[in-house]
Amino acid sequence: MRSHRRSRLLAPLMLAPLIAGCFASGGGDDSRDGGGGDGARLRVALAFPPAENLSPYGADATLLSRLGVTEGLTALDANGSAAPALAESWRRDGDKVWEFTLRDATFQDGGDVTPAAVADSLTRATDAKPAPAALAGVTLSAKAQGERVVRITTAEPDPVLPLRLSSPSLAVLSGKAYADKNRVDPVGHATGPFELTEVNGATSATLDRFDDYWGGRAQASGIDARFIADGTARANALRTGELDIAEAVPVAQAATLDDKTRRDTATTRTTSLLLNASSGTFEDAGLRAAARGAIDTSVFAEDVYEGYADPSAGIYGPAVTWAEGKRTAPVGRAEAEKPGGATVNLATYDNRPELPEVAQVVKQQLEKAGFKVKLTVREYSRLEGDALAGKFDAFVLARNTLLDTGDPVAVLAGDYTCDGGFNIAQLCDRDVDRAVAEAVGIADTAKRQDAAMAAEARILGTDAVVPLVHQRIITGVADSVQGVILDPYERTLVGTGTRR
User: Fold this and answer.
1) Are 184 and 177 contacting, i.e. CB atoms less than 8 angstroms apart?
2) What pTM did the predictor assign?
3) Residue 150, burial from CB neighbour count under 10 angstroms (0-12, 13-18, 19+)
4) Model pLDDT for residues 50-75, shown as the tens digit of each residue
5) Of 9-13, 20-24, 458-462, which range is least confident?
């Protein structure tokens, strides 16, 4: 049996450090292959194609950051702390105001990254519908102040604003990205080390090195990215030499890769069963309780994930090392009712190949308890809109709980409150909203942790979410490749030091 002790996360929340160097984008020496000293192009396969026309405000934001296209004012370091990115420093000015001092940087379309441009980009993010998950429950305004400073004011005190601004959905783009009022276009208008030059729908994308990147020229001359939803196909392409990097290798394919090629990384990704609390079968809290009681979560970590996961503990898994010691029992659970043949439309996606198998196990367990279950499996981009619209009774989702901001409270606000932008569970509960709101405003580390766990107890008490398993991510990396960024937050994959 594999050992899965994990240290992770959340610097203002004082988690234990990650393995040193896990975010280093440098690749050691400055060697190149025989490509004329200009660095070979990288061939990369991603599991998820663009789902929202490359909008920076939704799921595609992470796709852009993983390919080194976009960045924000801040980033997350290996300890989960807010680290400099486009902002080289910041300071708090009272409870509601922060000032960020910009470094000298250039947009890929040639313009300077100015305070006015940054303020405009952040303002457009705040006006986006739906709001980016990182801004759930937050109202802010940004203004230029002088030649180098952006002054950001929040309606309520926001002690984790520097963490929040590290979110991929708050990437800074030039004014030209907003020329079309109907969409935001990041192609050629971002600031990262690689510039998108061509996007072929949901099939592939071409990126070239951005030579004026403030962090130095990337060692690879560009990236040829392919979007391959089939995990077996990604692994096969890596084995046959068609790819240099394949993300999210299926557990079933892990044994086919040798030790040097297979990299597994602890993450805060939790796979959960989300139950639609606003309509359909699971609007009834008693039936949600029955579904939760029917699920035996012990089978997922070892049987489905073959040891590349830990049994479920809650919304936060063992990677959030402080959580277990502060976890309290769920609050306010309803009495379970008999299912009596109630029908359940269950859905999941196949970009992460283990999820259909997880969903099949869930289906069997629910049916054994007396539900009638119909399972729908699609590629994620063809499923997300229906899921967010509440068209399913139940949904199996793999969610990185620290992806959006690095703050544990943010995922609760985005996923489980009435106004949450990623509320697939369609949960709208007054007590949950109150508990999350209390946590949002707390600056003290220990007290914020306590409040987050109190909110988790409230959310779990609704039975709108049933955590199933906490997983690791397997990345396939060819022997010739160096400097791949194995990021527990799953925000980055390639950087200036990634090369072959």
Assistant:
1) yes
2) 0.75
3) buried
4) 988 899 998 899 999 999 999 999 99
5) 9-13
Amino acid at 409: V
